[in-house]
Design brief:
Helices cover 11% and strands 32% of the residues. It is mostly beta strands. The protein has one domain: Pectate Lyase C-like (3 Solenoid). The strands form 3 sheets. It has a 21-stranded parallel sheet that branches. The protein has an 11-stranded parallel sheet with strand order 4-7-10-13-16-19-22-24-26-29-34, with no helix packed on it. A two-stranded antiparallel ribbon has the order 30-31.
Amino acid sequence: MKRSPDQKNITVRSICSKIFVSLALMASTMPFAASALATSDFGPHKYFVSKNGDNTTGRTWATAWNEMDQIRWASINTMQGDSLTIDGGVGRMIYRKPLSVQAGPSSHYPLRVAVSTESQHNGQAVIAPGSDAIGINVSTGAIQLNGSKRSGIFVYGAKRGISVTASVPYPSNIKNIEVSHCTEAGVYVGPSYYPLPLSQLIVHDNATNVVSVHNGTPGGASLSKCWIYNSTAKVNSDGVRLDGTTSAPSPAIAISNCVLGPGLRDGLNNTTAAATPSLTNCLLINASRNNVSSYSVKLQNVTSFMTRLNASQMSHNCIKLQASTTGYPYQMGSTVKQSIAFGGQVSIPLTVPSPYHTYPPAPPIPFPITVEGNTQFRTTGNTTVLAPTMANPQFVTPVALLPNQTPIPLLMSLDFSLRPDSPAAGAGSAITSVKKLLNSFE
């Protein structure tokens, strides 16, 4: 049966009415939907730590967490790019609890932590937790930690100033931090999959300034543009010490564009035969025992300075190399290229026992070292290993006039730039003074 025109009109009006009601309902709910979208909790978020915060949400300076141990790590999502900003105050702000990183253990996104660059908040953040605590502890996950300027974070008087023992394969980096007067180590780096970049650090007057432990994994510390020293000989501690118990070969540590010294016992002290540390464009200043002590080493454009004797009137070594009678050191060997040694003793053996166990015993073999383009002056010991002759490199500062008991502040001020008439052109470090290093900090 066909519908009448009146019935058709009623049906059309009914459909239009339903559409109108639906549109009205959509219009009425759209503001709420837009509002919900605008107030969603998707990141990235910025979180704050400040002694002046009220310790609630951490989302603003006013609501900032007021101590390092009050950070609510569960709130921070590194996968969505969350970050943490530390208040340095107007001049400095002192925190008494350690920064123990607990964010990002299950993601490939490092936590970004930095001192504020905002006016009124861009002073120095001091972490002074006491000698039983670790100042900055990274035991899980990864971190990008930046003091935002030279010594923007200052860790003082802790057990370890910075300790990185996270072994997960996530990259980290640490920059612009000063560490001093720690009772165990200024910086401690455990074995890891990635080398840990440490740049623009000032590490001084700690029981040991930097400790890098290796077990054959590719990781270890990678120091760039760092100054490591002791302000007084009474501290009597090493600059960089390498520890390890494995026989697997490893670079263990790479040091570039750094100054080691003055005031150190050993500038670099490698205690394990399986590691071959490298130093490139580095300045080593007057360690009391050894500027470099290792089984094998790679030196490229290094400047080493020593007074004739140390302050105790004892001889000290610009370089001391030794051999192990087992395994890898025979394959690894050492290299010293385009480097300058001014003063100190060259303690490098001519030969080492053969690694081959035969009867009768095999004759000794030459010590495995390659040298090229070096300059030496006023050195003693096995000097012919480094270079065939003596030649004064002609530094800008007349260091030959310095006495054995040269004060440490004076040693800090020396300029090891080469004069235009230097016979050592092309050799030595591009970092020629402490001042030049510090001026290069970004």
